[in-house]
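Usage example:
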Amino acid sequence: MSKNILVLPGDGIGPEIVTEAVKVLNTVNEKFNLGLTLENGLVGGAAYDVHGTPLPEETMSKARAADAILLGAVGGPKWDALEDRELRPEKGLLGLRSGLELFGNLRPAILYPQLADASSLKPEVVSGLDILIVRELTGGIYFGKPRGIRVLENGEREGYNTYVYNESEIRRIARVAFESAMKRNKKLCSVDKANVLEVTVLWREILIEVGKEYPEVELSHMYVDNAAMQLVRAPKQFDVMVTGNMFGDILSDAAAMLTGSIGMLPSASLDKDNKGMYEPCHGSAPDIAGQGIANPLATILSAAMMLRYSLNEVAAADAIEAAVSKVLDQGLRTGDIWSAGMEKVSTEQMGEAVVAAL
Amino acid sequence: MSKNILVLPGDGIGPEIVTEAVKVLNTVNEKFNLGLTLENGLVGGAAYDVHGTPLPEETMSKARAADAILLGAVGGPKWDALEDRELRPEKGLLGLRSGLELFGNLRPAILYPQLADASSLKPEVVSGLDILIVRELTGGIYFGKPRGIRVLENGEREGYNTYVYNESEIRRIARVAFESAMKRNKKLCSVDKANVLEVTVLWREILIEVGKEYPEVELSHMYVDNAAMQLVRAPKQFDVMVTGNMFGDILSDAAAMLTGSIGMLPSASLDKDNKGMYEPCHGSAPDIAGQGIANPLATILSAAMMLRYSLNEVAAADAIEAAVSKVLDQGLRTGDIWSAGMEKVSTEQMGEAVVAAL
Ligand SMILES: CC(C)[C@H](C(=O)O)[C@@H](O)C(=O)O
Ligand SMILES: CC(C)[C@H](C(=O)O)[C@@H](O)C(=O)O
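Running the assembly step on the lines above writes:
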């Protein structure tokens, strides 16, 4: 039974890092006889340049047909000036998330022992850090309506967005979070602003309700301002955190940065059947695009997550993760994670080292 | 000409820390012949317990009449169970901010050299840290309408809030931010999510427009997820940051925690005429309330900010800040900032040491 992977390199460093992840996927495909078929598509600025839209219908139908999607990154200054906001690269990404109902975003923040020094935090605060942030990805203020900019009676303009969640949206992301916690240390912290925002009062209520189905999981609640603080102060207090789209955007980036090596962090965006899109946590880094110096490991680890979550190929996923750990042990480092005494390698050398380690 | 200060101790550790700040205020009042008159009022849970509302009309009219307000903190588990959300302590605080139009919230995040070790970040990342976060405090999603929880046609509930800003709201906080930057290192970073939220597209546009009046200030823009990341990675890149109510809540707490000593950080909330309310950045800490161990320095430094910003008594403000620095040099520490070799003191001892240093 062949499995169909859609590969979307996107913009900036996207194509370079995806090239290396594809090499790794091809290697495990052969080695573990996975029967993967890879096909390419356009999204973001790359799609706009060819088709005049960041999410062409062709890409969307390929995405619907695929068993899983591997994405590089989207966006760059080249398209920031586009007057029509609907044509910007980010809209391609948001359209994929929403169109495929990829509501469950898993963002691990793991400190690799080999890279412990890279963190801006003291070693004792972050050593062994392993948090999973579960972010709702297809609702909340990202997609809420009404939204826009209108002219008021006095001639002034007013901008507005709507932060909205209904019970079923909250319930399904809560389940993803509790299930994730069950596979880990059974601690779930739900982040809200229930002392101010009604939408998160409902969020908290539903989390408590769903929690009754998971008596083994220790559920706690934290206001988002305190959560941002606690991530800086003592991040190891957390196991799994769950929150809405906007708070999740902010907290997952803060958590990722605690490790000091955002070039290492993968992510998964899953629908209700665990079909998913996989992408590095970092962005398209237009400033270093085309130089062959970007770190491909987050994308390679995203491919591993894809094998684990959507394709149920656990052995192949384990093999990739072990190979990444091995190249780090060998002292190979791209510029972003390089430190004195280590060997600085290019994007391609890093990708090939992982292939070799496999 | 006498100046009228309203003192609102509030809940939790509020009364203890405010007591010490009042001692300090009385001392400078005499020493510098400031002509301050202090009067007390109730807010938060303390007001609810007496009047059945967190913001009695009496407090509100005293607040309107005052030249400045010194607040401790509000909130605690005792009132969390109140069914009617309008009666919770936080609503007292939000009502004061909004009722007095205290839209300009200044939150400095300063690392005291004497407390450099308290940070969870590496010394080289935070030494000398001195950021000012300017947070819009009376608009945005905190106060936007419509808001609530409604029942949908299918019987499910939906929670919703509105993130809204008009041009004049943005313009006036932008001016506060640019003016603050002019008094500092002339660098202003405006934080938004203009790649997703229309309301922040308008925010960015107005910031650029107001920036033209301040050609000396270097204005930059950053997405909120990246800002959270950059605060963890390299906070010293920032001088002044300006953002809306919700993002400001999150980022100012993260920034405060970078210093490791949130018990040291004051804040000011100003109206258009620089009348203001002054409070510590930390909360009411109900877990340690009544034990006499809370750190009064953030409240004492809030009193100093009050003298500087609302009462134009710069010499008295300087004197308080110098006195705080002196007690730190003497090695006096409350529990929250204590480290080996230092002398652990109570709330009262700390307050009296500052008075003595004056
Ligand atoms: C590019 C942007 C729209 C996106 C988001 O805000 O979700 C990104 O920051 C992310 O976290 O994947
Ligand atoms: C207590 C709460 C309503 C308040 C806020 O969210 O503004 C607090 O977190 C703050 O930052 O002053």
